[in-house]
């Protein structure tokens, strides 16, 4: 994998990954508490 010295893409991809994980978790929680959803 890339080291810290190649730093343009890696922090951006890391932030995108964290935001995607948080969005998926929040969406799953919201769908979990809505009625008439299979989640």
How would you describe what is shown here?
By secondary structure, this protein is mostly helical. It is 64% helix and 0% strand.
Radius of gyration: 16 Å
The dominant shape is rod-shaped
Question: Roughly how much helix do the residues carry, as a percent range?
Answer: 55-70%
Tally of contiguous helical segments = 1
Helix- and strand-based class?
mainly alpha
Q: Secondary-structure element order, as H and E?
A: H
**How large is the share of residues in beta strands?**
under 5%
Secondary structure: number of strands:
0
Note the main sheet: none
Multimerization state:
single chain
Question: Can you describe this structure in just a few lines?
Answer:
The chain is an all-alpha fold and 39 residues long. It is 64% helix and 0% strand. Keywords: Membrane, Transmembrane, Transmembrane helix.
């Amino acid at each position: 994998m890339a080291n810290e010295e190649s730093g343009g893409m890696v922090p951006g991809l890391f932030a995108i990954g964290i935001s995607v994980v948080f969005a998926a978790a929040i969406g799953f929680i919201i769908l979990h508490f809505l009625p008439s959803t299979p989640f």
